[in-house]
Task: structure prediction
Amino acid sequence: MEPVIAVNAYALGAFVTYLVAVLGIGVYAARFSSAGLTEFFLAGRRLNRFVVALSAVVSGRSAWLLLGLTGMAWSRGVGALWAAVGYIVAELMLFLWYAPRLRRFTGTYDCITLPDFFAARFDDRDGRLRILLSAIMLVFMVGYVAAQFVGGGKAIGASFGLQPETGIFITALLVLGYTILGGFLAVSLTDTLQGILMLGALVALPLMTISALGGWTPVLAELRALDAGMLDPFAVGLGALIAWVGIGLGSPGNPHILVRYMSINDAAQLRFAAVVGTAWNVVMAAGAVLIGLAGRVYFPEASMLPGADPESLYPALAEAHLPPVLFGAVVASIFAAIMSTADSQLLVATSSVVRDVYEKVLRRGEPLPPRRLVLYSRILVVLLVAAALGFGLLAENIVFWLTLFAWAGLGAALGPTSILALYWRGTTRAGVAAGAITGAVTTIAWYLSPLRSVMYELIPGFTAGLVATIVVSRLTRPPADTDAMFSAMVEADRGRSPRP
Result:
């Protein structure tokens, strides 16, 4: 008989309490977020360093950390840490060097979205670059959100005995509720709550499991007996190592992470955020891998897990070792990881339509009431949730590939182009357009080809986007006011006011 996770009223009560808290945050943030697009999409650029630190790292992890990485560690051992090394190092570098430049520039030129940044940086007067980037973002984001809804549905269904479709509806309605009410402020505050919850669960569960197994020494002995390669970080092979570390290339191209840097109240506070965010990333990744190792000893065969699926290890281990209330909190942490990504992606997709297409292209130059734009944004959130919900229900069994695929597509299209825009004066509008198209197309083509089994599509996609941006930029002319643009990025470091 297939193992299942038991349903308990106390666990359900703890989970419902968490949901009520999240909706309460949305209600709290509603009045502030209704003032205008800057408030709705960037929390008025007033977020403090701690909120930005947690929100940035948590929004990038999704359920992949709690379900995917723990399952990978169960199967592959400590070598699974390489899958975390790439994004931890990449996001530390973003906090320290990339984020301050992006925050200063977007603050000086009143940029709310990533296409806003590119449009201002490259004098995109006709809006063609803005529309191109918005279209790329929207295509990948809808699938990304659908994947999160499916993940939430399966987590709720497996934990509380519900059908996955019911869980998908619950996930979609909850994310819709607090996102449409509180905008970016609610999303960031809930991300902070969710980050604390995830960290607590990822620290407590492996410690309790290892203690129940008699301590670390017996666990190591059992792992060696099962498979000595479980404790060898280099047993994964060169190809897998490169692919896993290469996951970090997606971080500078995923807008739901980058907007966090744009929302901080002071660019100088990003160094503190780097310390906090990196520490959070390291502890969460270490906890996930420890869960996988301890879980392999507790459940040595996949047949002992619900659905014989290693990715069900996290909730199964929690149900075996934690009291019902804490088990409910663990289920909430899975849901938190999913929601922290889904809500951020919804806002990014919405902003790419309302701000970048409607306000800046279709109604360019017209005075538009801020509250009307916020209303349109909320309506679009509803429509995007409906689209993602429908896609998730229709493609429930195949939608999970979209998570890493969408991460790769956005990373390849927007990662190299944004880095060059911030650091190379020779970057041109035509170069960015060529790089974005090349990165996205290469990612799709690589995924659909047999080469997918050789290397993760993000790596060739990112490389192709980088080369295309450089080559086409060399053949075209950068904006005339590039020096002023770079002053807006760097002069704050020297104690001078930037020149817009």
In short: The radius of gyration is 22 Å.
